[in-house]
């Protein structure tokens, strides 16, 4: 009842429990047109300037249902699998893949230069999920590029993400060490073009 009352008052419903049943309405159904988005929250914060070797994706809850069998709005809380499905797909990773292939070792192996993927809720900065990336990191399939993960980093989910004043103009930002490397590649490419 409190969830319905809060939603009617225009307040977003937040939960400090990862239990989906704790977010159901009084009739014990898992969704209701009267409920506003509910996301799992826990104490703690992660700062952008403390990250390295990390890809970040910014997700709007309105987009979460695309490409899944779930409805596009979030009612009684979604498990991490739904966020994982959206966080790993449909990102422009071609230039990142090109950068990685430029660093190929003499034995043909590719470096693992990105370790983590973190999904952050647009606007409010809640971490919707975090995962370790597999050695391959990403791949292109029939539907586009997809991040490849090895497992969830469960203690980050629900914490607040602090951007520390970093520009968020893209939905796929990188940690500062990777951004510096990208700038280095861009500067070298410009120098080569000028010299030719």
Structure description:
The chain is an alpha/beta fold and 196 residues long. Helix content is 22%, strand content 24%. It contains four helices and eight strands; from the N terminus they run αββββααββββα. It has a four-stranded mixed beta sheet with strand order 4-5-6-7. A two-stranded parallel ribbon has the order 1-2. The chain is globular, with a radius of gyration of 19 Å. Residues 7-11, 23-36 and 66-76 have low confidence and may be disordered.
DSSP strand count: 8
β-sheet strand percentage: 15-25%
Structural class: alpha/beta
Largest sheet, spatial ordering of strands = 4-5-6-7
What is the C-alpha radius of gyration, as a whole number of Å?
Answer: 19 Å
Query: What's the average pLDDT?
Result: 77
Biggest beta sheet summary: 4 strands, mixed
Shape: globular
- The helical percent reads 10-25%
Low-confidence stretches at least 5 residues in length (pLDDT < 50)?
7-11, 23-36, 66-76
Secondary-structure element sequence?
HEEEEHHEEEEH
- Distance between the ends: 70 Å
Number of helices: 4
């Amino acid at each position: 009842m409190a969830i319905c009352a809060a939603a009617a008052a225009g307040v977003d419903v937040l939960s400090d429990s990862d239990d989906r049943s704790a977010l159901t309405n009084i009739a014990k159904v898992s969704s209701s047109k009267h409920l506003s988005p509910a996301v799992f929250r826990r104490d703690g914060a992660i700062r952008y300037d403390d990250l390295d070797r990390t890809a970040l994706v910014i997700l709007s809850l309105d987009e979460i249902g695309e490409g899944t069998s779930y409805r596009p709005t979030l009612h009684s809380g979604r498990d991490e699998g739904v966020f994982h499905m959206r966080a790993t797909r449909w990102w422009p990773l071609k230039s990142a893949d090109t950068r990685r292939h430029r660093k190929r070792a003499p034995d043909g192996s590719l470096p693992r230069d990105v370790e983590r993927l973190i999904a952050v809720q647009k606007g409010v900065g809640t971490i919707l999920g975090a995962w370790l990336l597999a050695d391959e990191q990403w791949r292109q399939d029939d539907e586009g590029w997809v991040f490849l993960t090895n497992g969830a980093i469960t203690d980050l989910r629900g914490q607040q993400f602090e951007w520390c004043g970093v520009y968020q103009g893209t939905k796929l930002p990188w940690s500062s060490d990777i951004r510096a490397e990208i700038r280095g590649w861009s500067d070298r490419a410009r120098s080569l073009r000028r010299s030719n």
